[in-house]
Amino acid sequence: MTKGKKKITIDDNRVITDKDVEEFQAILSEYQQGKQLIDAKATANQEWWRMRHWGQMQSNEVDEERATSAWLFNSIINKHADIMDNYPKPNILPRSPQLEQEAKRLSEIIPIIDDRNDYEKIYDSKAYDLLIDGGCVTTVIWDNSLNDGMGDIVTKIVDVHNIFWEPGIEDIQDSAYVFVSKLVDNDVLEEQYPQMKGKSGGIKITAEYINKDENPDPTKKSEVWDMYYKKTIRTVVEESEMGERVERVNTLLHFVKFCNGVLLYASENDESLRERGWYDHGKYPFVVTPLFKIKESPWGFGYVDVMKSPQAQIDRLDQLILKNAVMIGRKRWAVKEGADINAEDFADWSKTLIKVSTSAPLDECMKEISVDSVPAFVVQHKTNMIDQLKETSGNRDVSQGSTQSGVTAATAIAALQEAGSKLSRDINRVLYRSRRDEDFLKVELIRQFYTEPRDFRIDNNDGSYTFIEYDSSNIFREDAVFDIKINAEKQSPFSRAAQNETMKELYGMGLFAPANAEPALTCLDGMEFEGIDKIKEEVKNKSLMMQQFQMMQAAIMRVDAAFPQLGIAAMAGFAQSQSAAAVMPQRTSSEEGTAEERVARTESDSARTAKARVAASKQADIR
Q1: 181: enclosing H helix or E strand
Q2: Residue 200 and residue 191: Cα distance in Å, rounded?
Q3: pLDDT tens digits for 521-531?
Q4: CA distance 617 to 208
Q5: On the CB side of 2, how many CA atoms lie within 13 Å of its CA?
Q6: Residue 574, by phi and psi: left (phi above 0), alpha (psi -120 to 50) or beta?
Q7: Between vectors from CA 501 to CA 497 and to CA 507, what angle results, nearest 5°?
């Protein structure tokens, strides 16, 4: 709070009761009706993903052969593999120089919190939900039960069937309420909340997946609802010196838990949270991430929605071809009425001899019923539908490491794979934005709850590690604001292969030689790849070391030339006969000897020069 100011909160002192829960349930029913299509689509898409989609295909035919191919499945798992190859890592950036050290610490401890929370498993589920259902939902909350009661941050995946928001909004933060359901054992619920004794159980009202592999007994569980809502309060700030009163509007996040119409908890009824709210950041602790965005909804559609039509056509054509193959392989015969042929023995392939008592020729008594093969255009159409599914999903052969154009070089294949991964990079950007929103909530929870020092082990690049203590004392103030940038923790193998080839080519050209530091830096300034800043730093350091070495060598050679009896160059490992020529200018004959000898040589040289001039003038006169 700013010094010299006094805060007066104006509130209605509202208390949440069971009567309010009835109103909440009415709002929940409205939200459920508005989200029926999303729930139904998510249920159907899971059936397509598990290759149980014949029940979702509109067909009145009843056939024994229901071909199910895995083209859709193959495309999804390839997209998922690309996502996991580019697992994200947060980089917390300060907005002021005073926060630089805190930003570095947050960048180090947030991945540790994620490791403790097994975030890679959560990210794996996020990727599948995004591709299959068309979106994913995660929640970032505080769990007081962790770390021996100190509490810690928890990130969880939320099933789209179990969360409800206001219909017609595009950002979940704009929803008036957010409801989340979960099933709790009746015994656990009654033990934790004594007011639920005799009132647990009931019917689950949220949508469920069909054809589930596991079916728990619903009578032993109760559906508990967590409800979040935002409340606006007026805060009057009174200036003690000026005497002015300024009204501010604050948004608080509040939390309600109820089950079967019974209120279990309400943060507004808690005196310590009534004026503060559930979380200080005032945002819903959910991140809803759509893959392909649609208007007036925070949700979207995914690759299953795009690929289900060609997959259905492929399976229908497969069914037709399979049925034709069975008809051709399982021969049928037309037997003349009255022919004494034992049909059972004739159909039993284990019997070598078949008794026939007829005077007519056998070929007149029975005839094979021939079946034509499926026309070639039907098989071709199936191939075309497979190609269409690959094209619409961006899952061409080159993305899986194979080519059809005779390209065999590893570098060329890697280049094609990198060029063909535009869709995968776009999906990664979607998930990186989601990760950034999650990390914002994590930073805010650290700010609010990390009031006591906590120990963290920081792993260094050289394999060693250090221990640090961290608390939120330096970021608790309001002006401690950070930016968050998400990078790939580990690059795709194809990106690494292409980058390695680039490095080899540059090295082969001699670009990284210390003498070529200037052109190397100029070249690197025009390039962009992971780790380029580190390479620039290495080039600058090697160039500086080379300059220092040359200066030291020149100084040693000068001292050695002045005092050759000391042998400094030899001790330093420099050969005077070779290095001195490169470092020091060589002495001419006129510079050797004593001063008197040099003067005499100079006079004799002058005399010779004068004689040469006289001879040259005489020759000129003769000519």
Answers
A1: strand 177-185
A2: 11
A3: 788 777 766 66
A4: 118
A5: 10
A6: beta
A7: 145
